[in-house]
């Protein structure tokens, strides 16, 4: 529905298995470049990179498995956005 309205949509999940079930799905760690080793407290996104620009162009991000997401990962994703 959103794609037919020319909206940029990205689906993401916390686990890799679930991301394979989604069309163009990515894990949250991949999308937000979360550093898993430090409990997702930081991101490897750099300002002005192509991936950061793509995130800024997104109209909607659908994040599946929200009950599994750690508080620090949400805070880092919020900071990246």
Automatic annotation (TrEMBL):
Cofactor names from the entry are: Mg(2+)
As one GO molecular function, the record gives: hydrolase activity
Documented EC number(s): 5.6.2.3
Per UniProt, the enzyme's principal EC class comes to isomerase
Q: Mind listing the UniProt keywords for this protein, alphabetically?
A: ATP-binding, DNA damage, DNA recombination, DNA repair, Helicase, Hydrolase, Nucleotide-binding
Mind telling me which Pfam families this protein's record contains? PIF1
Which segments constitute the DNA helicase Pif1-like DEAD-box helicase domain? 2-81
| InterPro entries, alphabetized | DNA_helicase_pif1-like_DEAD, P-loop_NTPase
Q: Which reaction does it catalyse?
A: ATP + H2O = ADP + phosphate + H(+)
Its GO biological process terms?
A: DNA recombination; DNA repair; telomere maintenance
Record-stated family = Belongs to the helicase family.
Q: How is this protein named in the record?
A: ATP-dependent DNA helicase
Origin organism is: Caenorhabditis japonica
């Amino acid at each position: 529905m959103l794609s037919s309205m020319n909206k940029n949509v990205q689906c993401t999940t916390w686990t890799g298995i679930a991301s394979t079930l989604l069309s163009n799905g990515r894990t949250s760690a991949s999308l937000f470049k979360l550093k898993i080793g430090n409990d997702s407290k930081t991101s490897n996104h750099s300002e002005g990179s192509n991936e950061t620009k793509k995130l800024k162009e997104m109209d909607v991000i659908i994040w599946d498995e929200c009950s599994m997401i750690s508080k620090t990962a949400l805070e880092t994703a919020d900071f990246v956005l």
